[in-house]
Amino acid sequence: MTDGTTDLQALAAEAYIYGYPMVRNLDEVDRLARKGMGSVPPAPANEFSHGSRPADAATPAAGADHDTLCSIAHLDLSGGALLLTVPDTGGRYYVLQFVDAWTNNFAYVGHRATGTGEASYLLTPPGWDEEVPPGATRISVPTDAALIVGRWACAGPDDVAAVRALQEDTLLEPYWTATEEPRGLPTHTYISDDEPALLFYEKLRIRMAAFPPAPAEATYQQRFAPLGLLDAESPYTHPESDLAGALREGLAEGKAKVEQAASEEAAEGLNGGRPGDHAHDYNADYFEVGTLKDPQWICSDRDSAHLLRAASAHTALWGMHGYETEYARARTDAEGLSPAGGRS
């Protein structure tokens, strides 16, 4: 392998670590819309889909457990702002977690963050500059595609009906100034499933263009130009052999690094603290309602944050910050094996 191809492979591995969270996140969003997840039925964009029984392993939301019901809404703000109304829960714990296309947790609404009274929130897309209606609180959404992942405390089967009533009173509707139909997730150029590496980088290329990150990250993305990730047209349908080889090897290398980091986080905790406590501290750019802009909860080194974000997407997609919840994790399995596969 030539030095140039070796450099491309290293760059492809870096791009995999950087882009894996968004690619997996939006793949799951697409699956939610088409097939649903566990007890959460399929639903179109900008509509809540409510689970009618405790979340299970089919729902990738980290922290899904046996004492909550789950609600999920895929947001598409390309057509304009949305108005969110939440009911008075009478002190019952709930949280609506807001996740952008890059898996950044950028807002929380609920018991800890905003209380349990009735409230309205205007969810606005990037570049929105209109007035917020009286009585509503604005939440600026960093990317046109985003998620709300809701968790509602449920004391058991006899409590399900009460929770379901609260879910049904949680409403999303287009704000009256919204004048366009949402565009939906961008469609990428067809790449065969037999070429998973090329398909991954094609998804990343089209989604990077559709959902720009924070300005600091946009500058960072320029380094991926030699891979074709900034090209307006897909370079992956008939790539040159050196590029194709570098992408295949780079994906394998990046995937191995993500899996290793995920194992280390599960076993020992990354970024300090217990496993899981700081697994979602990679957002350093967007702090809306309910988030804590505190150095304790921000991984300031962006390279480390990219790896942390990828590891979290791999094992705990849609997981919340440690200040909203604590995740109990076993250091070994029933056979005494650690998450990395060895005995501790």
From TrEMBL:
Annotated stretches, region: Disordered: 37-60
Pfam families linked: DUF1254 (PF06863)
The DUF1254 domain, residue ranges: 46-174
Gene3D superfamilies: Domain of unknown function DUF1254
InterPro entries reported in the protein's UniProt record: DUF1254, DUF1254_sf
Domain of life: Bacteria
Protein name: DUF1254 domain-containing protein
Natural source organism: Streptomyces longisporoflavus
